[in-house]
C-alpha cells in the first residue's frame, strides 16, 4: 500500500498534533502548528492551509475549540483572527487519573494486562499527562496472575446474555503462591457446573453471583480463581428455583448482605455497637440497616447478612460490637474469640475459671 501524498497527510498530521500537544490548558496558535509540522513531520504549510484543515476537522465532527478576535490589517480592513486551538477530550485528566487509580487499586487484573490498560488510558490524553502519573511506573507485580481473567469475563458475559450454563475449574492458592485446582474426594479435578446471573466488583475483585447446579442456594466465586471456562449448551437454572433469588436478584440487597462475598445463607442479625461506628456500619451494610436504643454511647443494629460474613465482621470490629441474635451466631463468634484467646494466652481462660471458684 503506497503512502498518501503529503497534501492528503496534512489534515491527519494536524489532528495528531492536536491530540498530542493540546488541551484546554495548552492551546495552539496556527504558528505553533506550522512549527511542529515542520520540525516533527517534515511538512510545510501556510496559515491558510492550517486554518482550512482545522475548519474541515470541526465540520467533520471533531470537537475543536478556538478563539476569535477582530484585528485591523495593514490595509486598514477588519479581519477575523482564529487562535488558541485545542482538541476537547472525551476524558479530563482528572477522570483518566481516577480510572488509572482504579486499575492500580484492583487486586484481580494481572500486572502485564493492568500495565497495558494504563498505557491505553494514558494515550487518551496528551504528552503533558504523563508527568501526572509517574507513580504507575512503580506498579509492583505482587499478586499471582491469572491471564485467563479477560476470557473468563467474556464467556460469562455471553452465558448471562444467552441464559446458558458454564463449566469451569476453580482454584485456590497454596503457601508456595501457586494456583491449584480444587479436587474431589477422589483426588480428581472438580468440574463446576454453574448457572451464572451477575458479575460484580467489590473489595477490589470481580465476583460471579451464581448457583452451583448441584445445590439450590446462591454462590459467589472470585473470577481470578476461575480457569478453563466453557460455555455450555444447556440452559441456566431460573433464578426463581434458587433459594434467596425467588423474586430475582436485588443487587444492592445482595451486596449489603454478602459484605465479604461469602457463600451460604443470609439471616436476620442483631448486634450492639459503639455509636461512633454508625458511619462504618452504613458503609458495610447499606442504608437499610435499622438503628434502635441509641444511648449516646452504644446503639443496637438490625441487619440481614450472610452468616459467615457476620462472623468475620464481628471479629474485625470485636472490641466495638457484640452479637445479640441469633444465638447460634453469637455462640459461633464466642467460640472463635475463645479459640483466638487460647492462641495468644494459652491456659489463661482455665486459670481465670479457677480463680473464680
Explain what the structure shows:
The chain has helices spanning 6-21, 30-41, 47-59, 93-105, 111-122, 149-162, 251-257, 278-285, 307-316, 327-344, 348-356; strands spanning 64-72, 78-87, 164-173, 179-181, 192-202, 205-212, 219-222, 226-235, 266-274, 290-292, 298-306, 321-325. It contains 11 helices and 12 strands. Helix content is 37%, strand content 25%. The termini are far apart. The protein is elongated and about 100 Å long. The strands form 3 sheets. Strands 3, 4, 5, 6, 7 and 8 form a 6-stranded antiparallel β-sheet that branches. β1 and β2 (78-87) form a beta hairpin.
Beta-strand percent range: 25-35%
User: What does the average pLDDT come to?
Assistant: 85
Given the C-alpha coordinates, what overall shape results? Answer: elongated
Number of domains: 4
Structural class determined from secondary elements: alpha+beta
Largest sheet: 6 strands, antiparallel
Instruction: State the helicity in percent bands.
Output: 25-40%
N-C termini distance: 95 Å
Q: Helix count? A: 11
Stretches where pLDDT is under 50 for at least 5 consecutive residues are: none
Tell me the total number of β-strands: 12
The gyration radius over C-alpha positions equals 30 Å
State the order of secondary-structure elements, H for helix, E for strand: HHHEEHHHEEEEEEHEHEEHEHH
Compile the SSE list and pairings.
Elements: H1 6-21, H2 30-41, H3 47-59, E1 64-72, E2 78-87, H4 93-105, H5 111-122, H6 149-162, E3 164-173, E4 179-181, E5 192-202, E6 205-212, E7 219-222, E8 226-235, H7 251-257, E9 266-274, H8 278-285, E10 290-292, E11 298-306, H9 307-316, E12 321-325, H10 327-344, H11 348-356
Antiparallel strand pairs: 1-2, 3-4, 3-5, 3-8, 5-6, 6-7, 9-11, 9-12, 10-11
Amino acid at each position: 500500500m503506497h503512502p498518501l501524498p503529503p497534501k492528503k497527510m496534512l489534515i491527519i498530521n494536524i489532528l495528531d498534533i492536536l491530540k498530542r500537544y493540546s488541551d484546554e490548558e495548552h492551546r495552539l496558535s496556527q504558528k505553533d502548528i506550522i512549527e511542529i509540522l515542520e520540525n516533527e513531520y517534515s511538512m510545510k504549510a501556510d496559515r491558510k492551509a492550517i486554518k482550512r484543515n482545522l475548519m474541515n476537522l470541526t465540520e467533520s465532527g471533531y470537537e475543536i475549540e478556538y478563539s476569535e478576535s477582530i484585528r485591523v490589517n495593514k490595509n486598514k480592513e477588519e479581519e477575523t483572527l482564529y487562535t488558541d486551538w485545542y482538541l476537547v477530550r472525551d476524558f479530563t485528566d482528572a477522570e483518566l487519573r481516577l480510572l488509572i487509580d482504579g486499575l492500580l487499586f484492583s487486586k484481580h487484573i494481572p500486572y502485564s494486562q493492568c500495565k497495558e490498560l494504563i498505557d491505553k488510558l494514558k494515550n487518551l490524553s496528551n504528552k503533558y499527562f504523563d508527568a501526572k502519573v509517574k507513580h504507575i511506573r512503580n506498579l509492583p507485580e505482587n499478586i499471582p496472575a491469572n491471564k485467563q481473567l479477560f476470557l473468563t469475563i467474556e464467556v460469562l458475559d455471553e452465558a448471562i446474555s444467552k441464559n446458558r450454563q458454564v463449566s469451569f475449574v476453580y482454584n485456590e492458592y497454596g503457601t508456595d503462591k501457586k494456583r491449584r485446582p480444587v479436587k474431589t474426594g477422589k483426588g480428581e479435578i472438580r468440574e463446576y457446573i454453574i448457572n451464572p446471573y451477575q458479575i460484580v466488583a467489590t473489595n477490589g475483585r470481580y465476583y460471579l453471583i451464581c448457583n452451583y447446579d448441584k445445590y439450590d442456594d446462591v454462590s459467589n466465586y472470585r473470577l481470578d480463581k476461575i480457569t478453563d471456562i466453557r460455555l455450555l449448551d444447556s440452559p441456566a437454572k431460573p433464578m426463581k428455583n434458587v433459594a434467596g433469588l425467588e423474586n430475582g436478584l436485588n443487587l444492592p440487597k445482595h451486596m449489603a448482605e454478602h459484605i465479604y462475598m461469602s457463600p451460604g445463607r443470609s439471616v436476620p442479625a442483631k448486634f450492639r455497637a459503639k455509636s461512633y461506628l454508625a458511619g462504618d456500619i452504613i458503609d458495610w451494610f447499606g442504608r437499610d440497616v435499622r438503628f434502635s436504643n441509641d444511648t449516646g454511647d452504644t446503639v443496637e443494629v438490625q441487619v440481614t447478612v450472610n452468616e459467615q460474613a457476620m462472623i468475620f465482621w464481628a471479629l474485625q470490629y470485636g472490641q466495638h460490637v457484640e452479637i445479640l441474635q441469633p444465638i447460634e451466631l453469637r455462640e459461633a463468634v464466642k467460640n472463635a474469640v475463645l479459640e483466638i484467646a487460647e492462641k495468644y494466652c494459652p491456659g489463661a481462660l482455665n486459670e481465670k475459671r479457677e480463680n473464680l471458684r
